Amino acid sequence: MDLLLRCRQNNWRKLAFIGIAKHAGKTTALNAFLHQLSDAEESVGLLSIGVDGERLDAILGVPKPRVFAEYGTYVASAERALLDSGALFEWIAELPISSPLGPVMVVRVTTPGTVVLAGIRQRAHVQMAVDALRHLGCHFVLVDGAFDRVAAATPTLVDAAVLAVGAVVGNTVQEVADNAQPVIARFGLQETGPEWKALFAQARRNRQAALAVEREDAPGHLDVLYVPAHAVMFDVTRQMGWSDDVVAVYIPGAVTDGTVDSLLRHPRDIQIVADHPAQVLLSGRAHRRLMRHGHGLSVWDRLPLAAIAANPHHIAGVDLPRVELLSAVAEVAGDVPVFDALHMAETTSDALEANRTALQGGEG
């Protein structure tokens, strides 16, 4: 699977690398793409939201891959993190971003090696760093979304995302695919229609939640009620102004299973509007229940998946069958290409064909 070609064809220049879980293979996928970009002599900028690139995993205490930067790569990271890196740098600029590890610096790799990415923890700071790297002439900017940092996959910051799916989320190939399906589905949600965007535009500008309520005295006419964003984190139906006449709700934060559970009691179809795919944190079961009740779910801004990196390796040392895993994830991935970062030439179609051949051989 040629990820670089796919990015060029779709004019995706800013990519987020995110994982379905810790140890899903995100860093391996990032390193593989960095190597491909280097081979193609593309100028690259690199940063992380959160902390990544550590020598030892901070949670489980097991070795993990480190981010490896090739010669000429531009990096935005905290000063002390850079000093702890294996690569050597030309120091270019200091950004107005402070962190416990010192100011965030922009550097250029002069001797290839591992890099520690840290110091950037806010969406506005990601935007500042991305802009600085683009200003330096980086054709591609890669944002490493450290564990539990969905902000990396924000459509206002990046053009597309690469999702890492690994054996760490299941004991069998099918279990991994089943757990990956609802996450992949978030990125396939429809964009919110213009009528709802017009209705909720002010709420979105002000980062408020909002309810669209059909007027009893004028059927078809909608009033908008504004509520604090934090007030809809759990049971939105308990908010002042909620009634059986609510037909839509805009939620600027996370849409969770708890959000859905409260809406299942609503007597009429309702449209839920989320900001973007990374804010939709529904399980597959909750999403299916929502659809069965006739409710709708859309995202204000879509974010395409550039690819899915399926990692058969488990940190406990028990790996899943590689070809079977690629095939199973491809079955739930729709038209998104699936690859193993350690074998990037392996395409989705190759994996599916190999799996079919194996099955036919078993039947014979």
Automatic annotation (TrEMBL):
Lineage: superkingdom: Bacteria
Protein name: Uncharacterized protein
Species in which this protein is naturally found: Alicyclobacillus mengziensis
